[in-house]
Amino acid sequence: MDETVKIFIIEDDPDAAEVMKVTLEAKKYQVITASDPEKGFQKAKQVKPNLIVLDVMFGEREMTKGFDYAVKMKQDKDLASIPILMVTAVNIRHPGFRFAPETDAEYLPVDDFIDKPAQPSELVEKVEKLLEQRVSRWRSWPRKSD
Amino acid sequence: MTQRQAYRPVEDLRGRITWLILLRWIAVAGLFGVITISRFLFRLDIPAVHLYLGNAALLASNCAYTVYFQRMNYQRANAVINVQISLDLVLLTYLLLFSGGIANPFYLFFIFHMVIASILLSNRAAYAQATLAVSLFCVLIAAEFWRFIPSDLPFSYGPHKRLGTDTHYLLGLLTAFVAAIYFTVYLSTSIVNTLRRREGELEEAVENLEIANTSLEMKDREKSRYVLTVTHDIKGSLSSIQGCLRVVLDGLLGAVAEGVKDMVGRAERRSLGLLRYVNELLYLSTLRSEIEVNRQEVVPGEIINRVAGEFNAKAVQKGIDLTVIDRTAGTTMRVDPYGIEQLYRQLLDNAVKYSSKGGRIAVALGINVDSGSLQLSVADRGVGIAEEDLSCVYEDFFSADIPENRDVSSTGLGLAIAKQIVTMHGGTIEAESTVGQGSTFRCSIPAGNDTSEEGKSDGRNG
Predict the structure, then answer these.
(1) Which residue pairs, CB below 8 angstroms and at least 24 apart, start in B245-252?
(2) Which residues of A make CB contacts under 8 Å with B?
(3) Domain total in chain A
């Protein structure tokens, strides 16, 4: 495993972030976290991680803020090629409902989804798969300014 | 009285005036018939010209009312009805004058005019009409007394030849008439008053009921939303608890002693159970707070096979033979995809949970040929449901108290969810069972292919 593989977690629940961090660190990844999506977005541009784990929901009132930031990252030339693993908890409407790249990635420029609570084995499996892929499938998502 | 009439809807007034006009048409036709038959069939020597003239006046007045009625200002409806009835009374008197006066029994028609006035007008106006009727009757009596009425009329051929000669008789008649008229108005108005009061009370009651119903529905939805928020918050914390425990159990933080692993494992299993419970409560509340069914084109047969697949491992583990017979042949329906999936899942979960080792579960899915509705049956050979419990299995948190099933992890919400999904789709669910031999759940769900949204908002309390 490459020592310098960096995974960037943007998640507002500190415990959920910690669980993911510990899980991934056990696999010898370097993990950086951010709890605020805007700060995370800025920080990601400096860190240049190999993978971004992005929570879909930030607080009760911003249920889909993660979607906005996924799009924002794809529109940013520094971040566009980094794969995004989206942590979904949108089952507020339909618990058990799952996002899937096959059906939902058409609208959301993320490479895969993982349901909350993210089980360690599943998280590691999805992370490894995305790291193998290396480059986001959505790097050519229409950009704003270019 | 006037207050009560003030909020009387226009439709009511319109109906009353239409009714009065219709009655008058009948009167015109009847009178024409009576005059014609008397004059030309019985060859009675009556002043037909005067009577036809009176009838023509009635006809003309009714034509005028009909025309005026089209462009009438409904605030003046009561005044119009008053004028109509007064004019009718005058015309009746005119007709009686030329057809025998008080000797003509048609003077009884004054009475039913009073009933009409009592029904249509205010109490005061009804008594005013009664007074007018009495005055007009006095005119008839005076006409009789002073022999204004031609003596050779058919109605004057009574035993007394001329009534007008007997003053006592005339006084008696007048007294009886006055009493009859006012008494009629009194009785009619009291009945009408009672009816109007009841009507008002009824309207008020219906209105109150509607208000109560709406607020109850709103409260119910509010409650569901509240539960939704609370359970969602609980779910977030539970997820984190479970995640933290999992990290320990997986030894990500270093080796864990067996005893510690066992205890943390217990805690993790309980948190997972609680998570499932919260998920189901969350889903049930979501369903109950939803107004419309989220209908999409789905293939129910595909979903049953997928869900049954999920239960295969569990069934094999318990030595249960799980068979699915899908006779839908890939038919599509417009239903809530996740709802249908949950329905299957809850019924299968229930069947597996209450099946003993080595049992059998038969799932059958078909389409009703006539109605096109989806028919699902899930039959197990498990412990069964006692007859007295059959009606309450769909209640929230119901869980049969069966000793050998103590270890069964049940939220008691599965069948409540199933029932909610079915009723939201406008369908039915029923269960039959014999204790010790098993249970069968049968659901029928309308295809929902037509655009009419049948049963979209009912089943709130399922």
Answers:
(1) B245/B271, B246/A19, B246/A117, B246/A119, B246/A120, B247/A19, B247/A22, B247/A23, B247/A120, B250/A23, B250/A26, B250/A120, B250/A121, B252/A22, B252/A23, B252/A25, B252/A26, B252/A120
(2) 13, 15-16, 18-20, 22-23, 25-26, 60, 89, 91-97, 116-121
(3) 1
Residue A116: both structure tokens together = 């909350």
- The CATH superfamily holding the domain B293-445 is Histidine kinase-like ATPase, C-terminal domain (3.30.565.10)
**Which of A60-64, B21-25, B411-415, B441-445 is the least confident region?**
A60-64
Distance of CA A84 to the CA centre of its chain: 4
Asked whether the beta carbons of A66 and A56 are under 8 A apart, the reply is yes
Q: ipTM of this predicted complex?
A: 0.71
Element (H, E) at B438: strand B438-445
Q: Where are the domains of chain B?
A: 2-165, 293-445
Write the CATH number for A46.
3.40.50.2300
**Interchain contact, A92 vs B286, CB within 8 Å:** yes
Length of chain A: 146
